[in-house]
Amino acid sequence: MTDEAGPWLVVGLGNPGREYAGNRHNVGFMVAELLAGRVGGRFGRHKRAVAEVAEGRLGFGGPKLVLMKPLTYMNLSGGPVVALAQFHKIPPGRVIAVHDELDIPYGQLRVKCGGGEGGHNGLRSMSKSLGTKDYVRVRFGIGRPPGRQDPADYVLSDFSSVERKELEFLVDRAADVVESVVTKGVEPTQNLYHGA
User: What does the alpha-carbon distance between residue 11 and residue 81 come to, in Å, rounded to a whole number?
Assistant: First the structure.
C-alpha cells in the first residue's frame, strides 16, 4: 500500500488522567505513545478534536500516521475520533482502533476488520459515531478476570507484576502489528501474527 490514499488514523483507546495510566483498559494509549516515538511525533492538544494527537511517517516517505488518544472517557471516544477523521478526510477503512480485549488471553494479539464490539464501550462509541463497524481493530488480549472479580473493575485495575514483566515487549509487538496493517494490509498481518 502506498500513501496515495492518504493518512491512517490510529486510535489508542483509554481513559485520560494519571490515575488510569497503568490500567489494562489503557493499553491502547500505551501503544499509541510508542508509535509516536517511532514516527518522531509528539502528542499535543488538537484544535478541533477533544484529543491529544501526534503525526509522523512510517520510514522515509512512508505512509502518514495520525495517532490519537481521546481525552473524553472511554464510552465517549467516538466523538473525537469522528472529528479527527473528518478533519483529515480519513475514511473508516483507514481507521485502526487499538484496544484491550477480555476474550483473548493475556499476551495474544489479534487483528480484524469490522464485527461486534464484545461489550467494549470505546468500540461501541466509535461504531455509533462513525456510523459503521467497518474499521480495523488491533485487539490486545488481557484475559478474563480471576475468580468472581467484576470485569469492569478488572479492566480499570493495573497490570499485575507478572504481566508487567512482559508488557513492554507486548506493547512493542502491538505497535509492530499496527505498522503491518498500514504497510501490508489486514490479511497478511493476520497470517503473520495470529499464529504467534
Answer: 7
Interatomic CA distance for residues 78 and 62, integer angstroms: 27
| Residue 120 annotated in active site | no
106 annotated binding-site participant: no
Given a contact cutoff of 8 angstroms between Cβ atoms, the answer to whether 141 and 109 are in contact is: yes
Report the C-alpha gap between 114 and 44 in whole angstroms: 29
pTM of this structure = 0.95
Residue with cell 490519537: 68
pLDDT digits (tens, 9 = 90+) for 78-113: 999 999 999 999 999 999 999 999 999 999 999 999
Output the CA torsion 28→82→45→47 (10° steps). 170
Does 26 count as an annotated binding residue? Answer: no
- Higher-pLDDT residue of 5 and 96 is 96
Name residue, grid cell 469522528.
82
The C-alpha cell of 177 is what?
A: 502489528
Nearest to 99 by CA among 37, 148, 153, 155: 155
154 is in an annotated binding site: no
